Amino acid sequence: MTTATQSKARTIRFKIKRSDGPGKPSYWQTFNVPVNKGEGANVISCLQYIAANPITADGTATTPVAWKAGCLEEVCGACTMVINGKVRQSCSCMMDTVAPNEGDTITLEPMRKFPVVRDLFVDRARLFESLKRVKAWVPTDNLWDLGAGPIETPEQHEVRYKLSECMSCGCCMDACPQFHKIEDDAKWQNAFIGAAPISQVRYFNLHETGATLKTERLNEMAAKGGISDCGNAQNCVKHCPKSIPLTESIAAVGRDTTIHAVKQFFTGK
Amino acid sequence: MSESANPAQPAVPTPFLLRRLHSLAGLLPIGAFVIMHLTTNASVVWGELGKGGVETYQHEVNFIHSMPLLLLIEIFGLWLPIAFHSILGFYYAFTGTSNVKHYGYGANWRYALQRFTGYFGFIFILYHVATLRWGWTWLPFSSGFDAHMAASTTAQAIRGGMDPTALAGFLIGALYLVGVLALVYHLANGLWTFAITWGITVSEGAQRRWGFACTGFGLAMAAVGTMAFVGFVTLDIEAAQQTESQMHAEVVNADTPAINELADNDNNNTTHQR
C-alpha cells in the first residue's frame, strides 16, 4: 500500500456496530481505512487493515474488530453481514464500487437475525438445524448396491442446479420480516424456517432418490413454522447472492404441501 | 409419518389447516361478498344517472332483504367468517416485524400495507356493521339504516349521522372512502398472495402476470367503490325519501288489507316519514 501513488489513494470511513460478547450491549466505532483504487479492496481487506491497526478515527486505541470469513469468493456464506443497512457477503463487496470517493462511509453491522458472538461475528447454527428439520439430504445409506443413479433430463438439471447453489448464508432470512432472531435453540423448531430450507425441500423432493423423504419434508412444511409462516414480502429473492428463485420455490412447495394436505385429509396418510 | 398413523393426531396439522382456512375465508365468502356489496352500492348511480339510482338501489336492497333466513346467512356467511379471518389475521400479523425501513421494495411495502389495511379495515367494518346493521347509533356521528329507505339512510350515515356537522361529515366520509379503498387493496393483494399460498402461481412470470390481473381488479373495484361513495355523498336526500316512501307505499298497497293497515300504522309512527 505504501508504494501507491497519491492520486490512487483515498480514505474510507468504516462505521462499525460492535459488541464485546453474547448479550453484551452494542456500540458504534468509526475507523479510517486507506484504500487504493484498482487494487481490489473489499470489506474483508479493510477489516484486516483495522485488525492490524485497531485505532478509531479519533485516535483511540481499541480491540481489533472480530469477523468471520471463509472462501473469499462468495460461495461459503461465512462473511455475511449487514453492509450499509442491507445484508450481503462482505468478501464480494468491493470498495471501488460501493465507496469510490474520498471520505465515503461504509456502515457494517452484524446480521440482524442471528445471535451475535462478538462484533460482526454471528452464530448461524440455526441454519444447520433448519436443514436437519427438512431432511435436506438424499438417503443412500444401505447395505446393498443401489445401482446407477436416476437419469435426469437437461430441464430437471437446469432447475435443480440453480437450487443446489444455496450456500446457507442466511441472507434470505436476515431480510425476511417473518423470520426473527431467536437466542434459545429450543425454540428454533417451531419458529419460521425461512426461505433457504424451503427451497431445499423443493431441491431434494425433485431428486428421484431424495423424494423417498418427500412426505416427511412436506409434513415439516405443514407443521408450525413451515411454509404457512411466509408472508410473501419477497425480500428473500432480492437478497439471495446466488439469485436462486426462492419465491418460486416457496410457491412450488406451497403447491406440493396443498396437494399433500388434501391427500392427507381424504386418506389419512 | 408416525403422526398420521396416530389416530389422536389430526390427518392435517391444525395450524396448517387454520392457515389455509384463513386464506380461503378471505376469498370465499368475504371477498365474493365485498364484490357484491360494492357493486350493489354503486347501483345508486346507475340508471338514468342520478334519477333512477335510488329506485335501482332500493330494488337491490329489497331483493337482499327478501332472502330467506337472512340473519343465518349473515351470521354464518359473513360475521363469523369475518371474525375468524380478522382474529387469526391479527394473530398472524403480529408474528411479523416490518422492515421496509431497510428493505423498501414494492413487495415488502405491499406486505406491510396488507397488514395495516387489515387492522384499519377491521375497525371500519366494525363501525360500519355496528351502526348500519346492529343499530348502535350511540356511536359517534352515526345514524342507522332503514331497509325501506335504503339510499336516504345510507347517505345520511355517510354524511355523519342525523345532525351532521362539518367535522362529523368529513370524519365519517373520510372513514368510509379510506375504509373501502383499504379493503379493496386488502382484497386485491390478498388475491395475489392467495395464488402463491395455494401454489397456483409458481413461476415468477406467473406471479407477475397474476399481479397485473389483481391490480386491474383492484383498480376496477376501487372505481366501483368510489363511484358509490360519490353517489351517496351527492344524493338529494329529500328527493330520495319521497321516492322511497312512494315505492314502499306501492309495495304495501299491493298486499292484503290487513297487512296494509298494519303497514300504514308503521308508516305513521316510525322513521319512514321524515
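The first strand of chain A starts at residue 9 and ends at 19.
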